[in-house]
Structures are given as C-alpha cells and as structure tokens.
Amino acid sequence: MSERSNIRIVDIAKLAGVSVGTVDRVLHNRGRVSEEKRVKIEKVLKEINYEPNLVARLLASKHKYTLAAVIPSFTEGDYWSSVSEGINKAISELRKFGVSVEYLFFDQASKESFTQVYNMLEKQDYDGVLIATLFGDQVMELSHKLDEKEIPYLYIDSNIPQQKNLAYFGADSFMSGTIAAKLMLGETGKNSNIVIAQIINNKEVSTQMQNRELGFRDYLVKNGFRGKVHRIDMRPNDYLKSLEKIRNIIQESDCMVGGIVFNSRIYEFVYLLEQLNTKDIHQKIKLIGYDTIPRNVEAMKQDKISFLIGQHSEAQGYEGIRFLSNYLLFNQPVTKMNLMPIDILIKENIDYYNNYQL
Fold this sequence. Notes:
The protein is an alpha/beta fold and about 350 residues long. Helix content is about 50%, strand content about 20%. The chain folds into 3 domains: about 5-60, lambda repressor-like DNA-binding domains (434 Repressor (Amino-terminal Domain)); about 65-170 and about 310-340, Rossmann fold; about 175-310, Response regulator (Rossmann fold). The chain has helices at about 5-15, 20-25, 35-45, 55-60, 80-95, 110-120, 135-150, 175-190, 205-220, 240-250, 265-275, 280-285, 295-300, 315-330, 350-355, and strands spanning about 65-70, 100-105, 130, 155, 165-170, 195-200, 230-235, 255-260, 285-290, 305-310, 335-340, 345. A 6-stranded parallel beta sheet has the order 2-1-3-4-5-11, sandwiched between helices. Strands 7-6-8-9-10-12 form a 6-stranded mixed beta sheet, sandwiched between helices.
C-alpha cells in the first residue's frame, strides 16, 4: 500500500466526515459511492489542493507550526472549557503535522488582563492566532499589530466587522438576540415586564453580549412590544439590591415576567430568584439563557429555564484551529464568515443535543 493510502486517505476521510474505504473508492474510481459523499470528498480534495504525496512530504518535514489561542481563563464546566475541548481535539488530530497550540489566557472581567496577554503575544511570533473577541477595542488593536507582522488570525465568539481576520467561527450574535426576543414574546406576551440581567464582576460587557442585546431590543421594537424592559446589574458577591428590584418587578406585574441573561450565566439568575423564597416563582417569571453548560442544563431539567440557545462552542474552537492549520499546511482557500447554527433547546431535547460530540 502506498504512502498516500496510509496517510492521505485517513486525513481526507476525517476532513470529509466519511470512512477511509469511501475515500479510497473515490480516489481510485472503483466501487459504489453515494453522490453526497462523493461531493464531500471532492470538495476536500479541492480545498487542500490534492497532490499524491503532499501529506507524506509534510510529515517528513521538520517544520513546526505554533498557534496561539487567546481565550478567557475558565474552570471545568464553564463555557470556555467547552471551547478549549474543541481546540484540544483539533490539535490532537493535527499534531502529526507538527502543529501545536499555546494558550494565552485572560480574565474576561478585565480589559487590563487582555492587554497583558496582548503584550505577551507581541514578544513571540506565532504562526497563527485564534482570538476570543470579548473586548472589541482591544481585539482591534491586537489585530492591527498582527496585520503589521503579517500573522494570520481568526475570531471566535463574536465577529468584529471590517477587520482583516482570515475568518470568523461562531454564531450571528445579533440574530441570536433576535431569536431570544421572539421566544420571550411567545412566553410572556407584548405587555410584559422583561428583566435583562447583566451578571458581571465589574462593568465590562463583551462584544457578543452587546450584539445579542441589540438584536433582542430591535425585535421588541419592530414587533409592537408595549411592556417595559428593566436592566439590572447582578453582582454574584453582592446581590441584595438586585434581589429587591426583582421582587418589586414581579409583585407589581399584572402578567408574566420575562428574564434573560446574554452570556452563559443564566444559572446565576436562577439562584437569585430562589433567594426570594416565593412559592411557584418559576411560574411567574420565564427565563431564557445561552449555552448548554452543566449548570444551565440542570436548571432547565428542573423547569427553571424555558429555553437555552446553543451556539456549538466546542465546534468554534475545533473548526477555528483546524482552519488555521489547513491554511498554513495546505494553503486552504479562505471562507471568511463561518456561522454556527443557532439552536433552540428545551427540556425535552437538551439531552439529544448534549449527546452529540465532535
């Protein structure tokens, strides 16, 4: 069996999401292959500029590629833990090509922390950089510096228009806010009180949260919302003032109240509501949140959250690293906007969603 059969076919099969045997049949024009699978394989061959011994030559090469992943620090079970799992999975597949990744973590509650990472990144020339775009202005500064050094980079989490990033992998944040608003009006009606809870450790608000809120409010305005939107800052270490505000909103409301958090921490809103010690509190306020992290899923299964909106966080990390690697290794053609599906999760389908793994 040739080097290409041993190496190239396995690589192509992974990229196309088909079996090794299916790739072999297409390459050697033998046996039956469905048109759908043939199209997938031929697309991969075109994207990587298929040459008979290209992968063998890459494996024999001593050249190493080091990528940087600039993402927030996290604890197990957090949103960014899932993103990291995707990054690690991609690297495990690409390590044989000499690709590695170094994490540069920052505190998502601190722009200064991101600036420190930016200074660290400046001291070393990476071959490519994956950037979580929480702090728009700082990300643009970093992007301009990478442009000057001609280092390719891409964005995940939320896109920043009119930049020279190679690509973006993530959801349409504005549209995900729009979808949340439509779900909310379906739950509470157009005359309701809606609480936008901003759960923060300081005053920093991510680019993604801003865009989601813009989409949410835009939908309300365009669809005849006649109620009132209350914006409440909730600080996990000092929630008493927030608690009193929410208590008053619920007590003074003649109809259903809606609640939403525009990052992955809707579980903290759930905890806050439980401190009210009000009977059937979750029958009086309907909550919508983002991301299927374990604490959110558990709250949904207990009927404390009506909807979670998923954006395939693991896939963002996986596809982002794979894209950068294929660009460096194979000169893969660039597709700048790579939008993840926006999934609407409820108690009845959440397990099916979480059972899916890359």
